[in-house]
Amino acid sequence: MPWQSNGGGGDRGPWGQGPRRGGGGGQEPPNIEDLIRKGQDKFKNTFSGNVGGGKGFSLLLLLVIGGWLLTGFYRVNTNEAGVVLRFGEWTETTSPGLHYHLPAPIETVIKPKVTEINQIDIGFKGTGSVQGINYSVDLAKERQMLTGDENIVDVEFSVLWRISDAGKYLFKVDNPAQTIRTVAQSAVRDIIARTPIQQALTAGRGSIEREARENIQAILDEYESGVEVTQIKLTKVDPPAQVIEAFREVQRAEADREKTVNQAEAYKNDIVPRARGEAAKMMQEAEAYKAQVIAKAEGEASRFLAVYEEYKQAKDVTRKRMYLETMEQILANIDKVLIEKEGGVVPYLPLNELKKKQ
């Protein structure tokens, strides 16, 4: 060791003092005051006596300034954004990576998490916990809303959001989380006030969520809040607990009414087309009978006119022919007996009897 060869001495310590052996042969502990004094002398010799007083102070000052300047390096993680403040004023926003700013207290950096999805629960105490929100409100009153048909419902929902612009989020709006909560309540109440209760309880929930997200985002953009609303989730839309049983009875009655109406509509849809078909059939038959009667009448009239024309040309012949045709029709289906004008019965061939046998 270097101190062991100092001045040719034997076993010496680092401060130039050899061990003292007593009667017991053990080593005595060094004097603390001597050690402090010698350390101070060496420090003074280094920065004043050996190098020079001005140069030593300058070197020390340069070391201090260099260390202070090195404190300006900072790193922004992938899930963060760096907001640089110069004497408390926002100057720029930096992306993830290694950056440099003027050391404190000239410039400082705030690094909020911009990719993290935050959740604010309204009307109930859920998993969402965001700093800066007053949770001492009456949740029962907070979730009660009036529908478009003047019914009361309990609405519980969550707002999922993230920071889209870190600078605006930190400095444009005072208490952004509470602002988001207030805006969300106002937007959802406005939509529920224009929605019938049946629609809010059933198929209208999806449209309520979409409209609420758009309205909330529009208001926050107008405030330049630097917040992006990613989703609105309606976790519960029910009548108040005090009247839920009565409401369910009303719903069952409504369901029965709808069932009866649907059955009546089904019967109507079955009987009306058949009645209309029967009516159309009767109309068609009547039209056919009408056409038949008219055609027959027109035929009879044409036949009469034709006969009349012939009658005018040969009245005697036509009269006789008409007489013979009429008698032929009359005598065709009756039994006939021929009697001569002068005498008895004239035998004849019974053709009608032969015809009956056939």
From TrEMBL:
<comment type="subunit">
    <text>HflC and HflK may interact to form a multimeric complex.</text>
</comment>
<dbReference type="InterPro" id="IPR001107">
    <property type="entry name" value="Band_7"/>
</dbReference>
<dbReference type="GO" id="GO:0006508">
    <property type="term" value="P:proteolysis"/>
</dbReference>
<dbReference type="GO" id="GO:0008233">
    <property type="term" value="F:peptidase activity"/>
</dbReference>
<keyword id="KW-0812">Transmembrane</keyword>
<keyword id="KW-0645">Protease</keyword>
<protein>
    <recommendedName>
        <fullName>Protein HflK</fullName>
    </recommendedName>
</protein>
<feature type="compositionally biased region" description="Gly residues">
    <location>
        <begin position="1"/>
        <end position="27"/>
    </location>
</feature>
<feature type="domain" description="Band 7">
    <location>
        <begin position="71"/>
        <end position="251"/>
    </location>
</feature>
<feature type="transmembrane region" description="Helical">
    <location>
        <begin position="57"/>
        <end position="76"/>
    </location>
</feature>
<keyword id="KW-0472">Membrane</keyword>
<dbReference type="GO" id="GO:0016020">
    <property type="term" value="C:membrane"/>
</dbReference>
<dbReference type="InterPro" id="IPR020980">
    <property type="entry name" value="Membrane_HflK_N"/>
</dbReference>
<dbReference type="InterPro" id="IPR050710">
    <property type="entry name" value="Band7/mec-2_domain"/>
</dbReference>
<dbReference type="Pfam" id="PF12221">
    <property type="entry name" value="HflK_N"/>
</dbReference>
<comment type="similarity">
    <text>Belongs to the band 7/mec-2 family. HflK subfamily.</text>
</comment>
<dbReference type="InterPro" id="IPR036013">
    <property type="entry name" value="Band_7/SPFH_dom_sf"/>
</dbReference>
<keyword id="KW-1133">Transmembrane helix</keyword>
<dbReference type="InterPro" id="IPR010201">
    <property type="entry name" value="HflK"/>
</dbReference>
<dbReference type="Pfam" id="PF01145">
    <property type="entry name" value="Band_7"/>
</dbReference>
<keyword id="KW-0378">Hydrolase</keyword>
<comment type="function">
    <text>HflC and HflK could encode or regulate a protease.</text>
</comment>
<feature type="region of interest" description="Disordered">
    <location>
        <begin position="1"/>
        <end position="32"/>
    </location>
</feature>
